[in-house]
Amino acid sequence: MMDESADVSRHEQVCLVIRYTDDQFHVYERFIRFERTSCTTGEVDQCYDSASAIRAIYKGIAAHLIQFIPIALYIHCNGHILNLCLIDLSEVVVPIRNNSSIIKSLYHLIEVSAKRHHIFDDIQKQAGLASIPLKQLCDTRWSCRYESLTVVLTHCAEIITVLKEIGVGDVFIMLHVMQTFDFIFHIHLMSEVFLLTNILSKYLQKSDVSLTQALTQVKMTIASLKWMRSEHEFNRIWNETGYLYNK
Questions:
Q1: HSE value, Cβ hemisphere, 13 Å, CA-based, for 150
Q2: 105 and 8 co-located in one domain
Q3: How many helices and strands (H and E) does the chain possess?
Q4: At what angle do helices 145-154 and 156-166 cross, to 10 degrees?
Q5: What are phi and psi of 18, to 5 degrees?
Q6: Domain boundary among 76, 97, 121
Q7: How far, in Å, CA of 98 to CA of 156, rounded?
Q8: Same domain, 59 and 90
Q9: The predicted structure's pLDDT at residue 42
Q10: Pair (66, 107) in one structural domain
Q11: C-alpha gyration radius of the chain
Q12: pLDDT for the residue 211
């Protein structure tokens, strides 16, 4: 397995991992090494997502491998499919997209500034809460957004207090949005969705999971998401939002 990413110094590097089974079909993964590269085409993209360099039926890596190993079928990474679904969800649903922008702004407003982070830290301690920083929204691992949403949801009152103390610039816009029922509802709803997908994402990343086990977990997650669309679950989330809003 190969994937390419830029490190903190902005150098492109390739991670090479070998995945194999023994005679008893126990799955193993072995990290080989990182290799710096200046080229991001061809085999560098061999991560088995939906990149054209991989899935192109004539010139893709998968097509070339099948010429040598006919049984080496190309399979779209389930973890990547999950992230694509979450990306589409966050972009298509306007309130979710707008609230994601608010959360990004909150992070940059509070956590980038040492002074404002200290204010947030003190307010949490005064409320008798464990000091937890705001989490940055990850652009690639969307399932990690569960942690970001959870912090905002559980520390909403403290964040509002921080915004009132800062009271400059676009803070008033964020303050207005965060004090609405719609904001709390959408954050609570998405935290429930991301909780399920976060469990699935971590499961798909296990080194010893088989394809059959992965598909079973995917089906269970889909069933749970469908159940969330029931009237019973909607009423539960709505009532819980009302409780959080009135705290």
A1: 11
A2: no
A3: 11, 3
A4: 70
A5: -105, 130
A6: 76
A7: 17
A8: no
A9: 47
A10: no
A11: 22
A12: 77
With a CB cutoff of 8 Å and minimum separation 6, the contacts of 199 are 221
* CA gap 63, 46 in Å, rounded: 12
- Regarding whether 58 and 86 lie in a shared domain, the answer is no
Three-state DSSP class for residue 61:
helix
Task: Give the Cβ contact number of residue 152 at 10 Å.
Answer: 21
- Look up the domain containing 178 and give its range: 79-245
| Residues 11 and 72 grouped into a single domain | yes
How many residues are present in the chain? 247
Rounded CA gap, 161 and 37, in Å? 47
Cα separations in angstroms, 154 against 123, 191, 235: 14, 11, 20
Phi-psi label, residue 21: left if phi above 0, alpha if psi -120 to 50, beta otherwise: beta
Same domain, 206 and 164: yes
Token pair, residue 122, equals: 């003190």
Number of domains in the chain: 2
| 52 and 94 together in one domain | no
Among 186, 177, 205, which Cα is nearest to 90's? 186
User: Mean pLDDT in each 10-residue stretch from start to end of the chain (247 residues)?
Assistant: 64 76 78 71 46 54 64 65 77 87 90 90 91 80 77 91 85 90 93 89 81 88 93 95 88
